[in-house]
Design a protein that fits this description.
Helix content: 25-40%
Strand content: 15-25%
Bound molecules: glycine, manganese (II) ion
Number of strands: 19
CATH architecture of the largest domain: Alpha-Beta Complex
Oligomer: single chain
Structural class: alpha+beta
């Protein structure tokens, strides 16, 4: 009897220890304390369910993992629409929304059923895998930390698919277009859905929910604005350090290292996009990111670099002289771009078309180039030879985020006019050759106008030149 009691005690301790280890695991996933809460994601899913109505079922899936080479994958990035609805970063996950409700096995007692309106299918926990590759949320983590009423392992998707559709007597099935490049485990998981859509396409109305989610993503909530502001604050600090650090003789890659050091140092997980550090002749290439050239005295450096913070990407460009002092020609071009940017930002407010702001920049750029004799006719078309991209774009979960033609409070845009004068440009004074200038800020549309979230990165000529007199983190010698 005594021995029996001992065994019971040991068994209880084991259960306790195991449960304790599980709780520790979840703690590990909560290191970042400023993530958007599960409740916010839940409200987004509710809002979407209201839009599709009780006679529909919606299925969303995340991005496949992408192979880099041999047994190495690229760092994983979830699908932004999926992430917007779930806050869930792990691969091989599927979300099913059943507004009318569907019956599933109770989590407490598997002999009973419960009715739920949303199910997340997530990768199962796998201690062996996790020892090598890091911990997973698993279904329990998704419920606790991401606000899901019900989550289960993704291997159940196949068997539950029919019952979810039939029990809801769905008349419409919303599924984002199944892309032909879906690969790996995710493609396999979605195969039953694909067969079902082929088979039942005539009985249920097949629709794509992407436009509905994208519309929800256009206006940023206060939580999203706070994360975008943080990503932008970190990026602005990196631009300040880069301006202080740059000197002729440095590799463009060294300046890239300054940006990326500051991003990580200040807590950003990664770049919003590959850093563009374009000096001299490279400054006229819009998305140059080889970053291998040695920066020379007399160059301009066009640096388009920004961080991603908790999934939200900033996007800032600054252009500065490698030696700390703009030449006359550089100053002339720079001032035109800055004036164009200010004119466009001044036009930003709710109810105004983005095209209107864009026109304001065009006018200033055209006038400026005409005055300098770089264009011979005061025409937008002539100016466009030196400004071959749009005024900007919304930012959010994607650096080029979703938007709409008319601005509304809560939208966040980049405003990034530029002028790029390549060597050998016909009829242009060679003093202007190899000058590429872009000035890009992150602008929040407010109720009565706008707010520049990236104002901490200097953009006035005098401010830049003053800051460049100081040394930065990039000037520390590596022993
Ligand atoms: N960094 C890319 C862009 O400015 O759109
Ligand atoms: Mn941009
Ligand atoms: Mn940019």
């Amino acid at each position: 009897m005594k021995r029996y009691k001992q065994l019971v005690w040991i068994y209880c301790c084991l259960i306790f220890i195991t449960a304790g280890a599980g709780a520790q695991d979840l703690k590990y996933l909560e290191y970042d304390t400023d993530l958007i809460t599960g409740q916010v994601y839940k409200e987004r899913r509710e809002k979407l369910m209201q839009q599709i109505g009780n006679e529909a079922v919606a299925i969303f899936y995340t991005n496949p993992e992408r192979n880099r080479n041999a047994d190495l994958d690229f760092p994983y990035a979830p699908n932004s629409d999926f992430f917007y609805l779930t806050g869930f970063r792990e691969p091989n996950a599927i979300l099913v929304l059943v507004p009318k409700g569907t019956n599933v096995r109770s989590l407490e007692d598997s002999t009973k059923t419960m009715t739920v309106r949303e199910i997340l299918f997530a990768q199962p926990r796998n201690p062996q895998f996790e020892k090598w590759n890091g911990r997973r949320y698993g279904p329990a983590g998704a419920m606790k930390l991401r606000g899901f009423a019900y989550a289960t392992t993704n291997d159940k998707f196949k068997t539950m698919l029919q019952s979810m559709l039939f029990s809801a007597q769905a008349k419409s099935l919303y599924v984002p277009t199944l892309r032909s490049d879906l690969s790996g485990d995710l493609a396999e998981l979605l195969q039953p859905l694909k067969s079902m859509m082929d088979q039942f396409g005539g009985y249920v109305e097949l629709r794509d929910p992407t436009a509905l989610v994208r519309k929800m993503r256009v206006i940023k909530s206060p939580e999203e604005i706070a994360l975008l502001a943080k990503a932008t604050e970190i990026s602005a600090a990196a631009h300040r350090q880069a301006m202080m650090s740059v000197e002729p003789g440095m590799g463009e890659y060294e300046l890239e290292a300054v940006y990326e050091y500051v991003f990580r140092k200040l807590g950003a997980e990664q770049n919003g996009y590959p850093c563009i550090v374009a000096s001299g002749e490279n400054s006229v290439i819009l998305h140059y990111n080889t970053n291998r050239r040695k920066i020379k005295d007399g160059d301009v450096v066009l640096a388009d670099c920004a961080a991603e913070y908790r999934g939200y990407s900033s996007d800032i460009t600054r252009t500065y002289p490698a030696n700390g002092k703009f030449s006359k020609a550089q100053r002339e071009i720079y001032q035109i771009v800055l004036d164009a940017q200010k004119a466009a930002i001044a036009a930003i407010k709710p109810g105004v078309a983005w095209q209107e702001a864009s026109k304001k920049a065009d006018e200033v750029l055209t006038e400026g180039l005409f005055k300098l004799g770089i264009i011979k006719e005061k025409k937008t078309q002539a100016m466009k030879k030196f400004y071959y991209h749009g005024l900007g774009h919304p930012v959010g979960l994607n650096v080029h985020d979703v938007g709409q033609p008319i601005m509304e409070a809560g939208m966040v845009y980049t405003v990034e006019p530029g002028l790029y004068i390549a060597e050998g440009s016909e009829g242009v004074d060679p003093a202007y050759y190899n000058i590429g200038v872009r000035i890009e800020d992150v602008i929040l549309v407010t109720a009565d106008g706008s707010k520049n979230l990236s104002a901490a990165a200097p953009r006035e000529i005098a401010e830049i030149e003053a800051l460049m007199k100081q040394k930065g983190v990039g000037n520390l010698a590596i022993q």
